[in-house]
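Exercise 7. Given the components listed, write out the predicted structure of the assembled complex. Treat all entries as one system.
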Amino acid sequence: MGQLRKPPLLVEALMLLLALLFLLPVCYLLMMSIKQPAIFYDPFKLPNQLYLEYYKAAFQDVAFFRGLGNTLYVTLGGLVLTILVASMSGFVLARMNQRFFRYVFLFILSGLIIPTVGSLIPMFKLAIALELINTRTLLVFMAAAAGIPMATFLYSAFTKSIPRELEESAAIDGCGRLRLFWMIIFPLLMPATGTFVITNIYAAWNDFVTPLIFLNDPSKMTLMPQIVQFMANKQSINLGPVFALSVLSVLPLVVLFLFTQKYMLKGLVMGSVKG
Amino acid sequence: MNQNRRLYLSGVLFLLPALLIFGMFFYLPFLQSIYYSFTEWNALKPPRFIGFDNYVNLLKDQRMKDGFFNTMKMVAFGVIVQNTLALFLAVMLNKPFRTKAFLRTSLYLPIVISLVVTSIIWGQLLNYEGLFNGILIRLGLESIIQDWLGTVQTSFPTIILLTQWQGIGYCAIIYLAGLQSIPNDIYEAAEIEGAKGFTLFRTITLPMLMTTVSVVLFLIVVGGLRLFELPYILTNGGPGTSSYTLFLAVYNAAFQNTQYGYATAASIVLAFFIIIVAIVQLRITSKREVEL
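Answer.
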């Protein structure tokens, strides 16, 4: 829409103002993590020194790196497992059109509209029965189960843009189906993988409810419940260390976001065209 | 024939891992939850079938009622306000601003901040002695300052507004993706015909964007129905039951009062709401979608 005309300066100024308003809370988060105790609760005093004690306290009182490790484990584990199984299912469901496969596709897609809220309590019971309660493995499987519908949908949509001849010629060369998929098809499905990762990694990293319900061992806890727990223990004194811990937990995602935001939009554009 | 059979079998094998995980950790608990919602089940007693009692009791529970109406308010606000603002913002961000990269980055950045951290930031900003009230005082608006999250009338509206900090940017980025997938030559053709401004938006952008609209609306509705972190951390549903959401009520009934059967019934109500909304919405928007 009028792609070439630049908008008037006044409009640009208004947009900048809006952008600053959106940024303000992020700056506030950073500022509160270095604001010395004497002025911590005075909203109009800005920190005039780099006060790093809160970070020290955060590292001392909370097993930050353990939490980070657990968060990485659960986040990446869930994404990898989803990608491994859903790329295969998405590929097959795009290629096969017998009745059985059509029904399976509908069955999996129905997961897109069934919310997981209702399943939390039976899941709790199931986890106890499977002896998976209070394990990170359970969280990985739950993340995969919840991610499979969307991922399968994406992979099947992208598979349709890969020419069938490729598989046929590879099959003639005596390549087994499984090897054919992982060696030839899966690399071509990279855009689907990228779209899935970029649109899911933030929610996975930031998940609070699942670990809150299914983990209780502090040594397995991920970052988000750790922060809330830390805050609950700190009620009486100043929240500086909580802010420091929050900054630390957000930092990896901000870095990731700044590097991948271009692809995020591209991935979504591709996703929406295919979808 | 043999070849086809082998292809079919290998297809089934390819599906197996996904089906196993999905069936075991998604569908099975979902189906079980339907049964458990008709049982009395708590920490002391194993599930016992009691028919519709749980559902009847839901209607008498103030937390559930407030949770239900608050959740509906959240969804309505999201569908009307958040959706419109996000679309507007996306249209703006699609224009060639000189500072386009900065604008986009700063409007999207809140997306990556978790709801936990969002709660911590805004809880502090909206404190009685916090920055927000401080600014109001300096502007001479001392009469309206209050404990925004600690007052019955303002706690839930405040939480709704807080969801927008991330929500608008999140939906705007999806709308922007939708806008960019509309081929430019359609606009050029229409401009040659003399269409411009809002006419272009109404006759081309909006119809071409219908799929994206349905995606965004779906995300807003589902997100609104599972609003949990902000009230859990900021108000724990209070003061009184004024900022309860349905999800928070389910959580508290299950994991604080160990009324598992009862909580499951509440979550089934929530789940069926989402499913019905999704189906209705798919019906409505798929009729309006324009195929490229």
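Discussion: Chain B touches chain A through 97 residues (CB under 8 Å). Chain B is about 70% helix and 0% strand.
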